[in-house]
Amino acid sequence: MKLYGYTADAYDEHRPAILKEVTVVASPEELRVIAKLLADVANEMERSDFDHVHLNDRISTLRDDPQFIVAKAT
Questions:
Q1: What is the tens place of the pLDDT at every residue in 38-65?
Q2: Which InterPro entries is this protein grouped with (predicted)?
Q3: How many CB atoms lie within 10 A of CB 62?
């Protein structure tokens, strides 16, 4: 697994930075919703045509939150 990301003030960079650590600040309810979606995405990822998913597009309560993107490892 690799983690990538942008800082809030460097979002227009051409490439995300490789992250060494990630901290998620969320409520228990938000974590449960994200956990379920990650499990669902893991199943989708087994298809050959899977590329990536923006969780914010799938969970309406995350629409205004920072982008959370899951991509298939190559």
A1: 999 999 999 889 999 998 888 888 778 8
A2: Imm32
A3: 19
Average pLDDT over residues 17-46: 93
Rounded to whole angstroms, the Cα distance separating 39 from 44 reads 9
- Give residue limits of the domains in the chain: 24-74
Please choose, from the candidates 74, 70, 1, 4, the residue with its C-alpha nearest in 3D space to the C-alpha of residue 37. 70
CB contact at 8 A, 19 and 5:
yes
Contact 67, 54 (CB under 8 A): yes
* Per-residue tokens: 72: 């298939």
Residues with Cβ < 8 Å from 16, sequence gap 6 or more? 4, 5, 6
Specify the pLDDT at position 24: 92
This prediction has a pTM of 0.75
